[in-house]
Design a protein that fits this description.
- The protein is of the alpha+beta class.
- Among the domains are: 417-523, Alpha/Beta hydrolase fold, catalytic domain (Rossmann fold, 3-Layer(aba) Sandwich); 530-557 and 592-671, Rossmann fold (3-Layer(aba) Sandwich), CATH 3.40.50.
């Protein structure tokens, strides 16, 4: 018999990521991450940790196939990539605690994996050569951070010198290496001064496309947002040609089957990082020196959001969605619309056709192949719903079936509640959903959840946190105020330069409409959110006493200091808030929740990670200091060591449990 969800159920959840389909369409690979519980024995893990392994599924037949656990690492196997002959699989593996990822290859007929690299700095990424006899990969080689090891001072000269999830950026950028599989010989192909992040070979194998960060010295002084160059490396001559320079939001470069075009992802408005991610196509031509651009690139996806920005808290690992060529005149891409994501066909003439029904689910990642010219693509994809964590699916000949059942037993033993909606709230008719608990609390209390971003969206992703709140008897109200993605550019930018205006109005409208929909107009209502949702929580408790209590997570309280302490501060604050700390600092101060701290009377729990470089912990410290000094609101501070901005999604499992319990405990302490 099914039982209510508890926070400890996180420990039995499986996280499915990185789908890949073999070139012949006969096999699908996926990474399955599970949580290893501590044993309590000497020398064993003292805390729960993640373990990632690669599973293999046959794609023929009916029903749910049994998976083959292809790798058996005790730590992390990831980035599976089939060889062009479909008989081998290359992957990255970390074989010891605190080890670096190295490149391995394994035959699919059986046998042990062969280790191909032994770099002190590990391997960052790789790509198969079309011949199957070579692999290109990215590595910092034998570089070590000697200054950090010795505790020496570090001289910083770049604008971008730290990053969320990384900390201080290494002084040595990754370089491109080419490995000959038969001889084992490798050679370094580049001497880049900025980090390279992605690789892709041309179909004829003569050119390697490299994505590398734009050198800061080449950027205009007014351009502080991160941009990247698209480079073409000719393997015969060694010539490195810049195809495109300073592309905003560059990623997923994919050559067409005939090698005459290159599709890539980038901001649809190259002057505005807030614009939707689009698909661009660049015409190519070959010269004696290699490949070069033949004309200007063109956007083929219009104003579609060609990526998944739908929220979910039960994904761990990588979720690639590299668009795939369907012949030479169309692409398969993932589109996020109104809280859901699905696959579409985008023609080079700008036409868009649905490939999947725009259903109440989130397709979080996919990989596709076209086994024979003109055939329908065979697609391995991950899909989740509000009551189903992500699983691996196959699409072939217009039919879909689920391949993996990593969470089937987990779901069967739990009461998982489906949300109702979407409904509309307020004059702007913003969409929202409600989650009704199976056994409501006596006080019939509700919790309003505000997503991060702000340019992400709630909808049809799986959120364990919502299910836990419902299991404790709380109704949950969640939705997409103006500023959210997947509803168009105008909707997403309606609150820029005016944080806490129409977006705050929309959250309050969703609150009242949600309570009315639930029949709980007089019931207590609590508030929580993280990142931008944390900003909104801080903002609203300074504007209203409507909420019985609130939990603010990885939040922003003061934009004037966030500008200089966040890894994205300068470009994010200038575009989102419309100001800088000098000259027009009032624009930032006016939109800073801490300005209104003297109005706060709502009991507030502040949750923040000490290694957060996106919304630094000083934001929490400021707010806590001021509220304690004022003494008008009960305030507590939960500091989480060793974690960054992604605590709720990929933090150490026991710390994730502590966070979940702290949120529910705070609400229960304030009935």
């Amino acid at each position: 018999m099914a039982r209510p969800v508890t926070s400890n159920d996180l420990l039995d959840l499986a996280f499915v990521s990185e789908p890949q389909i073999s070139p012949d369409g006969e096999r699908a690979a996926v990474v399955v991450t599970r949580i290893v519980r501590p044993t309590g024995k000497d020398g064993e893990d003292a805390a729960p940790r993640y373990r990632s392994r690669i599973e293999l599924y046959p794609t023929r037949g009916r029903g749910r196939p049994a998976p083959l656990e292809l790798t058996r690492s005790e730590h992390a196997d990831r980035s599976p990539r089939f060889a062009p002959d479909a008989g081998r699989l290359a992957f990255l593996s970390v074989r010891e605690a605190q080890g670096k990822p190295q490149l391995y290859v394994i035959g699919l007929a059986g046998g042990e994996a062969e280790r191909l690299t032994d770099h002190a700095a590990g391997v960052d990424g790789f790509a198969w050569h079309p011949s199957g006899e070579r692999l290109a990969y990215l590595s910092r080689g034998e570089w070590k951070d000697r200054a950090a090891e010795k505790g020496e001072p570090r001289r910083i000269v770049k604008q971008h010198w730290r990053a969320e999830g990384v900390g201080l950026l290494p002084s040595e950028p990754p370089q491109v290496y080419l490995l000959e599989l038969r001889s084992g010989k490798r050679r370094r192909l580049t001497d880049l001064t900025e980090p390279a992040t992605e690789l892709a070979f041309s179909p004829d194998g003569r050119t390697l496309y490299v994505q590398a960060a734009t050198a800061e010295a080449d950027q205009a002084t007014s351009r502080v947002e991160p941009r990247a160059d698209l480079l073409a490396l000719d393997l015969d001559s060694g010539e490195l040609t810049t195809l495109l320079a300073g592309v905003l939001g560059l990623g997923a470069a994919t050559p067409s089957p005939d090698g005459t075009r290159l599709a890539y992802a980038a901001a649809s408005d190259q002057q505005d990082f807030v614009s939707p991610t689009g698909v661009w196509v660049l015409e190519l031509e070959r010269t004696d020196a290699g490949v070069r651009a033949a004309g200007a690139p063109r956007l083929v996806s219009g104003d579609l959001e060609v990526e998944n920005s739908a929220g979910g808290d039960s994904r761990y690992g990588a979720y690639p969605a590299r668009h795939a060529w369907l012949g030479s005149d169309a692409l398969l891409a993932l589109v996020n619309r109104e809280g859901a994501t699905s696959l579409v066909r985008i023609g080079l003439d700008g036409t868009v056709e649905a490939v999947q029904e725009h259903a109440a689910r989130v397709v979080s990642a996919f990989h596709a192949v076209v086994p024979t010219p003109g055939a329908e693509p065979t697609v391995a994809f991950l899909a989740e719903t509000p009551t189903e964590p992500g699983e691996l699916w196959l699409r072939r000949d217009g039919r879909e079936r689920r391949l993996s059942g990593a969470n089937d037993a987990w779901r069967r033993r739990l009461e998982l509640v489906a949300p109702q909606g979407p409904f509309e709230a307020g004059p702007a008719r913003v969409p929202f959903w409600v989650l009704e608990p199976a056994r409501p609390r006596e006080d019939r209390a509700a919790v309003v959840q505000v997503h991060g971003g702000p340019h992400t969206n709630y909808g049809y992703g799986f959120n364990l946190e919502f299910q836990l709140l419902a299991a404790r008897g709380y109704a949950v109200v969640f939705g997409n105020p103006r500023g959210s993605s997947s509803y168009g550019f105008t909707f997403a930018t309606a609150m820029l330069g005016a944080y806490g205006s129409v977006d705050a109005d929309d959250v309050m409208a969703m609150t009242e409409a949600g309570l009315e929909r639930l029949g709980r107009e007089g019931a207590p209502v609590h508030l929580t959110g993280g990142s931008y949702g944390g900003f909104m929580t801080n903002w609203l408790v300074g504007q209203t006493d409507r909420f019985r209590s609130a939990v603010t997570q990885r939040s922003i309280s003061n934009w004037t200091s966030m500008y200089g302490t966040s890894d994205i501060g300068p470009f994010f604050v200038e575009r989102q808030l419309g100001g800088v700390p000098w000259g027009d600092a009032e624009a930032l101060w006016r939109q800073s929740p801490i300005r209104y701290a003297d109005r706060v009377t709502t009991p507030l729990l502040i949750v923040h990670s000490e290694e957060d470089h996106r919304c630094p912990i000083e934001q929490a410290e400021q707010l806590y200091a001021v509220l304690k000094r004022l003494g008008r609101a009960e305030t507590e501070f939960l500091r989480v060591p060793g974690e960054g901005h992604e605590l709720s999604r990929s933090g150490r499992p026991d710390r994730r449990l502590a966070r979940l319990e702290a949120i529910v405990d705070w609400f229960e302490r304030h009935p």
